[in-house]
């Protein structure tokens, strides 16, 4: 009887970690780090945030309880978390401040202008896991890309990829904050990386610029006031008191990142998948409001914009049109949707027409 072929020997842990980081760079990640699973400090902050109701309608933030901060309970056997960072700043996009300053155009958060990042990162993380398996044999693992109950920013900070800024986004001295994060939870005892120190100093630019004052304290965002939450996560009517502050932002908000001094070091993404599609980096509000559902589905295929659905897309655009300079084109577009089947859409259209009628936005 032939002697069974022994499984491949586990490489030296430090050498394996170095290879994982090299593979990550080959796969398009700008940085890869490794963290342990001790998130006790982050868990306390999460529980305080939930207790304050700052999560709004995002019930899923509380649904998993403390498992969100305990990777080894989420995926039993987890010993380490491989955290990866991928730049997404689209240099080809219309200048963000120019679009925000033109009330007739729609502002879409820069991360959402191209292919859905979940799809891009998930594929690269799966390939990274395959390379690890080819080197050491089968191992326990599970990948996440903003797709499960994982505290990815605290984990990335522990892995040395940056620090959590006062706006609650991860910041890196060499890359700012224009990047996505992804993780692989693994049952391999890899050496961990050292976290980096924070470098926000006394700067409060992100807190001061927030249109709705959603950053209620350094590192604390009240989602109920956050434009990203209101335009993407929130399902009902947008609170009337906050509608004027949304301006022309129809999907997400980048203001806190746009003013951050560290983003002067951001590197444009080399990924073709993140190049803006269908002119959405500076599209006309009237044009977008005219898309019927079939057109919207066709033009948002494979994009993160799909998350809101056509009804909330129209809701957001109605608010932006109510904040736009009054013109015959804007009024005609709103009147064309005044009888929309959706109560949600009709309410926001009526608000916009009333706002334009009283001359608030002239």
Give the CATH topology of the largest domain.
Answer: NADH Oxidase
User: What distance lies between the first and last C-alpha atoms, to the nearest angstrom?
Assistant: 88 Å
Given the helix and strand composition, which structural class is it? alpha+beta
Q: Work out the helix count.
A: 16
Largest sheet: 4 strands, antiparallel
Structure description:
Pathway: tRNA modification; tRNA-queuosine biosynthesis. With 362 residues, this protein is of the alpha+beta class. It folds into two domains: 13-96 and 111-186, NADH Oxidase (3-Layer(aba) Sandwich); 205-357, no CATH class. 38% of the residues lie in helices and 11% in strands. The chain has 16 helices and ten strands. The protein has helices spanning 13-26, 40-51, 60-63, 71-74, 96-100, 117-136, 152-158, 205-209, 227-233, 243-246, 255-258, 285-289, 293-299, 309-323, 328-336, 343-357, and strands at residues 31-35, 80-87, 107-108, 141-144, 163-164, 170-171, 179-186, 215-217, 220-221, 249-251. The strands form four sheets. A four-stranded antiparallel sheet has the order 1-2-7-4, sandwiched between helices. Strands 3-10 form a two-stranded parallel ribbon. The chain is elongated. The N and C termini lie far apart (88 Å). Mean pLDDT is 95; it is low at 4-9.
């Amino acid at each position: 009887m032939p002697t069974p072929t022994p499984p491949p020997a586990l490489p030296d842990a430090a050498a394996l970690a170095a290879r994982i980081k090299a593979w990550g760079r080959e796969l398009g990640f700008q940085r890869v780090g490794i963290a342990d699973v001790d998130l006790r400090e982050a868990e306390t902050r999460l529980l305080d945030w939930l207790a304050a109701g700052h999560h709004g309608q995002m019930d899923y933030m509380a649904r998993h309880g403390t498992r969100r901060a305990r990777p080894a309970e989420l995926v039993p056997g987890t010993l380490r978390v491989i955290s990866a960072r991928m730049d997404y700043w689209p240099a080809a996009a219309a200048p963000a401040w120019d679009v925000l300053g033109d009330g007739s155009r729609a502002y879409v958060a820069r991360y959402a202008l191209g292919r859905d990042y979940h799809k891009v990162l998930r594929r690269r993380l799966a390939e990274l896991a395959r390379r690890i398996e080819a080197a050491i044999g089968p191992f326990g693992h599970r990948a996440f890309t903003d797709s499960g109950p994982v505290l990815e920013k605290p984990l990335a900070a522990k892995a040395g990829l940056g620090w959590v800024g006062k706006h609650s986004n991860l910041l890196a001295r060499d890359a700012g904050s224009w990047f996505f994060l992804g993780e692989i939870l693994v049952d391999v005892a890899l050496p961990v990386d050292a976290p980096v120190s924070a470098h926000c100093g006394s700067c409060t630019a992100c807190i001061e610029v927030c249109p709705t004052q959603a950053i209620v304290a350094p590192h604390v965002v009240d989602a109920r006031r956050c434009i990203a939450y209101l335009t993407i996560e929130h399902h009902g009517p947008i609170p009337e008191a906050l509608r004027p502050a949304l301006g022309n932002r129809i999907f997400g908000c980048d203001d806190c990142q746009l003013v951050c001094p560290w983003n002067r070091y951001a590197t444009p993404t080399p990924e073709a998948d993140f190049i803006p599609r269908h002119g959405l980096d500076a599209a006309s509000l009237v044009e977008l409001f005219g898309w019927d559902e079939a057109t919207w589905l066709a033009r948002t295929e494979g994009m993160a914009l799909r998350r809101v659905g056509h009804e909330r897309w129209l809701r957001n655009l109605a608010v932006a049109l109510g904040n736009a300079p009054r013109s015959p084109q804007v009024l005609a577009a709103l009147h064309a949707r005044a009888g929309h089947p959706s109560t949600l859409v009709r309410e926001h259209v009526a608000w916009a027409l009333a706002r334009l009628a009283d001359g608030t936005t002239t």
